[in-house]
């Protein structure tokens, strides 16, 4: 499994794709935080990174499916999946290797944004007057959210040998899990009775909660269960060849 | 060893109650027309697909119960030889050794595999930049990197040019020396040249399983001659020449006569009698090809 993981990570950085994703992510988040006046921290006046953590889920919603769409679809199309299936590794190991490789890329993409954190730290008055808890919480939330999107993307990719279809399915699922439940809960059908339950099925609720810097075990359990659920789906989808 | 393997796709029986057992060290040719179930059978042996019913035991491990152990023992070259085209040869072989479960001496194993298949010059290239023959070598190197006891090769020589063909054949012979090899192909000469045993499969069923030489001599009990006259001849007259199984008009005034014995003499005296000129008269070489054709009609 380790060698598969290594191979996946290498494939990001030996092709131009990994770099494109990193550059696009950093460039657009940089623009939003420092340049675009509506979201710029400099104009905003408060030393926080809310605009980064508000924007990042939307960027992830496009970029993560773009990375994960290859993971299985490509192997199905080129037939290389046959090599993996006939090696002494389990289907779950294959899924996990693909999952962690992409998660690794997500974490790598976040590391340079620590520079933004440092900048904010220096800009605040007096220096260091930043809500550190909220920022670290937000980072954790962002990694959790990224992890969820990755598991959704890996699952979608395991459904089809067509990368475009995998991309569209996973983008839709990411959007739906991120905000869909939020919007659904506003249906008059649910208001007053089920709305809080439905709201808590979505990512946004938990992401916001972690971002406040308060680590609530319910939020962590939520993210981990969703991730496990989609990993399990992906494994089942691979096993469906045996049915 | 396989026992009563059946694989059903939807309503189609791809493999129907197939059983055979291969001894250690044998090189077995697996023949059959396209769609006969060769690849499916191989996919079942390599644990890519589970059989609908039946079981198999590979090197003492059950296909279904101990599939991971079975996979450790098998080196597999799938049909069309899928490869990661954007990886480098060496990088890919390192990866192949890793997923095959090898932890120690990966470097030396890669090195020896590269040497055995003759990839020394190409080992620093990208797989996508290699010609088909060299890609086939990479595929073979990948299959032998963990020194498996069993090699399953699905049409290892398809699509190669005549030179590459000979090279790859020699290579398979070479690496198959101390292994059990099951290779599918539809090139008859290949089986005749390489395999001591041949299994022929048609419509999912085994129609022949014998020593390659036996299969060849079975075919020799029939004689086929091809004769071309200058005028057309009544087929019935030709049939009355001796113990004739079949007469086919295969071209203009060209007849193919299948009979119990060599009828060339009879045909020429027949021509003399009827004032016919024989333009060509030739005995067809019988071999595995004809056995194959007979059995898979």
The gist of it:
Chain A has 243 residues and is mainly α.
What would you note in describing this structure?
The complex is a heterodimer of chains A (243) and B (297). Chain A is mainly α and 243 residues long. Helices cover 76% and strands 0% of the residues of chain A. The longest helix of chain A is centred in the N-terminal third of the chain and has 29 residues. Chain A is globular, with a radius of gyration of 19 Å. The model of chain A has no long low-confidence stretch (mean pLDDT 88). Chain B is built from eleven helices and 14 strands. With 297 residues, chain B is of the alpha/beta class. In chain B, the strands form three sheets. Chain B has a six-stranded mixed β-sheet with strand order 6-7-8-3-9-10, sandwiched between helices. Helices cover 35% and strands 29% of the residues of chain B. The chains are: A mainly alpha (243), B alpha/beta (297). Chains A and B meet through helix 1 and helix 5 of A and helix 2 and helix 3 of B.
Q: How does the overall form of chain B come out from the CA principal axes?
A: elongated
Rg over alpha carbons of chain A: 19 Å
Secondary structure class of chain B reads alpha/beta
Estimate what percentage of residues of chain A fall within beta strands: under 5%
**Biggest chain contact:** A-B, 24 and 30 residues
* Mean pLDDT across all amino acids of chain A: 88
């Amino acid at each position: 499994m380790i060698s598969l993981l290594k191979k996946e990570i290498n494939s990001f950085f030996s092709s131009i794709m990994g770099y494109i994703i990193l550059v696009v992510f950093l460039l657009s988040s940089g623009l939003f935080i420092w340049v675009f006046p509506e979201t710029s921290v400099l104009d905003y006046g408060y030393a926080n990174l809310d605009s980064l953590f508000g924007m990042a889920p939307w960027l992830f919603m496009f970029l993560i499916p773009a990375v994960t769409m290859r993971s299985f679809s490509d192997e199905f199309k080129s037939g290389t999946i046959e090599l993996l299936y006939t090696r002494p590794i389990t289907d779950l190991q294959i899924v996990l290797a693909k999952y962690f490789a992409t998660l690794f890329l997500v974490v790598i993409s976040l590391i340079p944004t620590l520079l933004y954190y440092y900048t904010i730290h220096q800009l605040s008055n007096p220096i260091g007057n930043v809500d550190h808890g909220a920022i670290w919480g937000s980072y954790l939330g962002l990694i959790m959210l990224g992890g969820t999107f990755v598991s959704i993307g890996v699952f979608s990719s395991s459904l089809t040998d067509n990368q475009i279809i995998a991309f569209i399915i996973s983008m839709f699922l990411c959007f739906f899990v991120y905000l869909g439940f939020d919007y659904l809960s506003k249906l008059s059908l649910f208001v007053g009775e089920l709305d809080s339950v439905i709201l808590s099925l979505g990512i946004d609720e938990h992401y916001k909660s972690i971002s406040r810097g308060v680590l609530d075990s319910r939020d962590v359990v939520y993210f981990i269960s969703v991730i496990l659920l989609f990993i399990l789906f992906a494994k089942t989808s691979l096993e469906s060849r045996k049915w | 060893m396989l026992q009563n393997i059946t694989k059903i796709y939807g309503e189609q029986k791809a493999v129907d109650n197939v059983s055979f057992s291969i001894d250690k060290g044998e090189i077995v040719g697996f023949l059959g027309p396209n769609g006969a179930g060769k690849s499916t059978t191989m996919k079942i042996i390599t644990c890519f697909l589970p059989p609908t019913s039946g079981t198999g035991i590979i090197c003492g491990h059950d296909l279904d119960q101990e599939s991971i152990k079975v996979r450790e023992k098998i080196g597999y070259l799938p049909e069309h030889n899928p490869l990661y085209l954007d990886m480098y040869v060496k990088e890919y072989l390192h990866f192949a050794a890793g997923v095959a479960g090898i932890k120690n001496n990966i470097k030396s194993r890669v090195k020896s595999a590269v040497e055995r298949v003759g990839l020394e010059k190409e080992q620093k290239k990208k797989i996508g930049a290699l010609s088909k023959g060299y890609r086939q070598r990479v595929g073979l190197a990948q299959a032998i990197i963990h020194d498996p006891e069993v090699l399953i090769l699905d049409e290892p020589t398809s699509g190669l040019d005549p030179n590459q063909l000979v090279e790859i054949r020699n290579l398979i012979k070479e690496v198959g020396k101390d292994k059990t090899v099951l290779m599918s192909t539809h090139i008859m000469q290949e089986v005749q040249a390489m395999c001591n045993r041949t299994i022929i499969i048609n419509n999912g069923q085994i129609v022949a399983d014998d020593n390659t030489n036996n299969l060849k001599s079975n075919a020799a009990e029939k004689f086929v001659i091809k004769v071309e006259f200058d005028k057309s001849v009544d087929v019935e007259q030709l049939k009355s020449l001796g113990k004739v199984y079949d007469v086919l008009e295969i071209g203009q005034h060209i007849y193919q006569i299948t009979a119990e014995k060599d009828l060339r003499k009879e045909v020429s005296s027949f021509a003399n009698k009827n004032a016919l000129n024989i333009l060509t008269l030739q005995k067809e070489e019988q071999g595995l090809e004809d056995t194959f054709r007979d059995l898979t009609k």
